[in-house]
Amino acid sequence: MNKQPKSSQVKITNLRDIGGYQTPAGQLKTGIFFRSGELYDLSKEAADFLSHDLAIKKIFDFRRPSEIENRPDSKIAQATYENINLLSTPAQANPSLKNMVVNPQMENYMFKVYAELVLSSSAQEGFHNFLLEALSLHKPLLFHCFAGKDRTGLAAALLLKIAGVADDDIFDDYLKTNQARQKANQEILNHFADKLSSQKLKELEISLSVKADYLKYAFAQIKENFGNFDNYLISGLSLPADYQAKFQAAYLE
Predict the structure, then answer these.
(1) 23 φ, ψ (degrees, to nearest 5)
(2) Residue 136 lies in a domain
(3) 7-29 pLDDT, tens per residue?
(4) What's the domain range around 191?
(5) How does pLDDT run across 203-233, given as a tens digit for each residue?
(6) Is 1 contained in some domain?
(7) Is the model more confident about 18 or about 201?
C-alpha cells in the first residue's frame, strides 16, 4: 500500500509520495519520489515542509516557460531546480496563463496531449533527461507541472512502470489526482464562473481532471509505436538497455 507523507498539513495541491507500492522484486522505496502540482507562492510552512520534512534535494518543473514566468516556483532551501519543458505546443487550457484559451473540444484535445507526451521530441528528450537524473540522484526529488495531473501523471506512471508496479496500482496513483485536486479545481472554476460561458466552464472542468482513458491511450501509443514498454525506453527515450534493471536495483527494497 502506498504510504503518504503528512502533506495534508501543508497547502501544496496534489502532493504525494509515489513510493511504497509492491512489485514482484520488492517494494518501491518511500521518501524518494514525490509528485505535486505547482509550487507557486508557497507559505513558509509549506516551503519548510518540502525542505526539512521531505528533504527535497531536486525539483523538476515540467511546465512551459510562459507558465513559469507567470507563476514561478517558490524557492526551496537545499533544493536545486530544473525546468524540463515536456510540451512544446501552446496550451489549450491552462488557468496559470494570463491569456487563457479553452479548447472547444477539450476531451479530444486531452488525448492529443497524451499522444504528444509519448511521441513528441520535446517529451522524449525531457523524459530521457528526467529519468536519467532520477536514477543517478539517489536523493529525494519532486516533479510537478501546473496541476500535477498530465505531464506529472505520465512521469509518475513511467517511474512506477519502470519499477515493476502493477498496472492497477499505476492507475490508482494516477486517478488519485481527481480527489487531491477537488478543492483547487473548484476554486479555479469559481474564479472563472463569471468570465466564461457555461460551455467553456464545462470544457475547463474537463481540463482540470484526469480519466483512466487518457493514461490508457498513452500506453496504447507506446505499444503501437514501439511494440512494448522496453522498446519505448530504449528507442523512444534513448535510455540504456539496462536502465530498468539499474533502477530496480537502486530503488526497490
Answers:
(1) -130, 170
(2) yes
(3) 556 789 899 999 999 999 999 99
(4) 16-251
(5) 788 778 899 999 999 999 999 999 999 999 9
(6) no
(7) 18
